[in-house]
Design goal:
The protein is α/β, with parallel strands linked by helices. It is 43% helix and 14% strand. The protein has a six-stranded parallel sheet with strand order 3-2-1-4-5-6, sandwiched between helices. α17 links the parallel β13 and β14. α9 packs parallel to α12. The N and C termini lie far apart (58 Å).
Length: 435
Amino acid sequence: MRVAMIGTGYVGLVSGACFADFGHVVTCVDKDASKIDRLHQNIMPIYEPGLDDLVEKNVKEERLFFTTDAKEAIADADAVFIAVGTPSRRGDGHADLSYVYAAAEEIAELMTGFTVVVTKSTVPVGTGDEVEEIIRKKRPDADFAVVSNPEFLREGAAIKDFKIPDRVVVGTEDERAKEIMEELYRPLFLNQTPIVFTARRTSELIKYAANAFLAVKITFINEMADLCEAVGANVQEVSRGIGLDGRIGKKFLNAGPGYGGSCFPKDTLALTKTANDHNSPVRIVDTVVEVNASRKKAMAGKIIKAMGGDVSGKTIGVLGLAFKQNTDDMRDAPSLDIIPALVEAGAKIKAYDPEAMEEAKHLLDGIDYAENAYGAVDGADAMVILTEWDQFRALDLERIKASLNGDVVVDLRNIYSPDDMAKRGFTYTSIGRPV
């Protein structure tokens, strides 16, 4: 089948490359000419493991194309995916749908024959109705169906999530659209992937509900970690003990400094705004948003306390800046709250992240960057782990001990064992575990 993907951001690029790898012919469209030029050189605009190889392979096999000219891509397409950004709107927290609506206008002008218009972007309930109205108003004669097909990709594991998903959700009641969507995802039938066909508005809500529930799980275990510290329990054992219950599940029960990234912060906020607009508040999610924001700010205080209550004039070696491992995404990363608070308290920061430093330089002022983890801690008064990159899990601790100007280690991802760190002579602080 022929697919046009409007937007070459995280969702559009990964989805386009994976559809091409399924055997479809995909043209990814973006108005940013410099981004398209870089993609023609196989330079990815994001860091995602394996994406560059997947793109290169499918470009060579002439199944994946990149262009700034939407005309031919849309005119020839069986399905046109809208995969543009929906950031939080300044002032009220609602999702900014201006890019989605602009894409709908363009699609209306250029599509020919029966076309399935698919909202892949995360959008509030009712957006599909608006997209349909925009197209219908501009092209009363057009033969099309608007479908919701939310993405459930984890940054750092997006290719696997696309090719071996837990489920595919498709929101449409149009039989022709169902046939096209089934054909697009037909390769997944081999893995017996459940494909959930539902009404469009239900599909839109499924995406928000899923992200909100995962955010609730993260925030719940973070609060349990605080309780563990107060009563002398171990949050990792609590997580295991409850995660083995099939009704709960073990995923998203790792205590840490709070969630961030491109999805959870904006999607939980957008869901609460939609709920309030419809006089059906989701008070649990409201609380999760508040608790998570407070938690990220509180982590700086935890570090300062571990360093004796005063960091003025002291140097802190920070390992990890991205909101999670295997991504360069800095959106709403805990580091963006923690590091400025430490700087304001008088600390000097030397930081290292394997992928996110270039992006961090646009967002964090007044800090130094190191070439590797050991450079970040060399001469520092403390080492702080903010992101759980694999390369931080097996550091040469003897070398770290010799490099530090002191013995303080604050591990906000619970990578190391408290007993082992104590035996090695570190003053070790982690999340929700007894020292």
